[in-house]
Amino acid sequence: MNIVVLVKQVPGTDNVKMDPVTGVMIRSGKDTIINPLDENALAEAIAIKNSHENVKVTAVSMGPESAMKAIKEAIAMGADGGVLISGRAFAGSDTIATAKAIAAAIRKLGDVDLILCGERATDGETGQTGAMIAYYLGIPVATYVSAVEVKEGGVIVKRTVEGGFERVEIPFPVMVTVNKDINEPGFPTLKGKLKAKERAVPVYGPAELGLDPAELGLKGSPTRVVKVFSPKLSRDTIMKKADGTTGPVEEMMKFLAGKEAI
Amino acid sequence: MSTYVNANVEKEQKLSQYKGVLVFGEQKDGKILTVTYELLTRGRKLADDLGCELSCVLLGDEIDGLEEVVKRGADKVFFIKDAALKNFLPRPYSKAITKLCEELKPEVIVAAATTTGRTVMPLVAAMLDTGLTADCTELTVDADTRLLLQTRPAIGGNIMATIKTPDHRPQMATVRPKSAKPAAFDANRTGEVIVKKYEGATFFTPEKFLEYIKDTTQEVSIEEADIIVAGGKGMKNADGFKMVEELARILGAGVGATRDAVELGWTTYPHQIGLSGKTVAPKLYFAFGLSGKIQHLAGMQTSEVVVAVNKDPDAQIFKVADFGIVGDVFEVVPMMIEAFKNLKANA
Questions:
Q1: In angstroms, rounded to a whole number, what is the distance separating the alpha carbons of residues B289 and B244?
Q2: CB contact under 8 A, B343 and A94
């Protein structure tokens, strides 16, 4: 069985720095991590590999050359190999353009039974690419998955939805996007780290993927960011200092009554 | 030069075929969900600004109260009826919506950022080869260009980005549930309910819906709650966190928590609010003993009214609070509990 795990390199979320003038995130190549939910996806793939025979796990990432770090990390954690989709032509891709490129890379890998990724990434937060990739590959998708049971010829997934869970049975090949409940990701092993160092990871550009540059990057993206601005974080806050009396709480009650909030 | 002009004219002709606003309503067990009426509020405003019709599409086998969708603002309601659409499955749903879109050619489609909307809309966007903007907090129309301006938080809520889809139609967006009030019922409104049956193998899919299991572990789902009481590391321990739960019980509110509080085991993951947890937008949000890391703020800053209690006067949480009390949660929160108990007793 062939499993592909999509890993996105994202800024280490505790250290996001903003340019105070432009309000734009300062991206530094150094301070990056694998998107946490993609780590859950990877852990699930490795768990399946450990409990079934003949399972191969390939990590696929798209991003600048520095995203190689994410793939090496995935190999260190137990993936068998990886592929990086990279090149200037991909810059500025929105979710549609990204999905087309990743789908092309997965197709190039040949017969893939199961594709796993996080249900969203902590940077873009759109949660759209997984489903779009499934469409371009012509395969079904299951989103917000908190449990995967591999059966003969397919999976039974448990989806976390509003107010409860759904169980859905889907034959291979299938794309599954996972949430945090699915497992506890592990850590890289020393053996894994050594393997990661040695393992050659191919880098695919548009030519290797047979993609028309017009369909890629900004050119291939239907959406355009027209304005970026800082959210008006500050509200007109009424501040009180606790003084041992019930005064501040009484004022809060009056304030809430005035707002018809209680 | 002329080629360029012709290309532009052609593009405009292509884009101008698209008219009207379509919202994707949701049902469960044949009952229309409230989020549908919230979408009608959004959709009505956009349709009025664009001077066009508002349609609503619902998918299912049997659906009650379709007339109400008209009474709450839709000019046309399309009910795509098929046994295969009884429960949500991404393929049949996206195919059905796409089929309707190919007929209607709507200029704008708005869906809810629910697990359903956020799953089906990317598929529809890919099928129609157009753009999609997730989780918008604001949707407006540019008066000159008629373009939909889709504003959403990006990078963990640190910035807001306004996005448009200039050359593709339809323009598609999802909006967070609870981010608009449900449209009011107007008994005098008139409109059309159209039942659509697409025969044939359109909705064939290899997926099989097995069952829905209601989660009974959550007394009040925080996504549905009008009031949320949330606590962070400042509650010190599981015992301290019980104050959060007590106030929530008194108010009939949902219990929210930061990632720290969940990881320390004071409550469970379904209560986690923020980037790695849930996004909520209640009418009233209490934030106790939490500093307001951006990750948490991203999940709650669209709350209508925010009350914060924290020892640190410089805590970020006060920036998004309407009413802040600088002080020890162990002194202030018990007073609040008393005050709300009294309020309830005298009501």
A1: 10
A2: no
Whole-angstrom CA distances from B276 to A36, B86, B177, B222, B298 are 9, 31, 18, 15, 10
Please state the ipTM of this predicted complex: 0.89
B78-121 pLDDT per residue, tens: 999 999 999 999 999 999 999 999 999 999 999 999 999 999 99
Which residue(s) pair with A156 in the sheet? A149, A169
B80 is in an annotated binding site: no
Q: What pTM, to 2 d.p., does this model score?
A: 0.86
Rounded CA-CA distance A57/A162 in Å is: 31
Given the candidates 3.40.1350.10, 1.10.150.120, 3.40.50.620, 3.40.50.2000, the CATH classification of the domain at B15-203 is: 3.40.50.620
Q: Which of A120, A219, A221, A226 to mutate to test the interface with B (most CBs of B within 10 A)?
A: A226
**B282 to chain A: nearest residue by CA?**
A261
Residues 6+ apart with CB under 8 A from B225: B253, B254, B280, B282
**CATH 3.40.50.1220 correct for B227-346:** yes
Cα separation, B316 vs A237, whole angstroms: 12
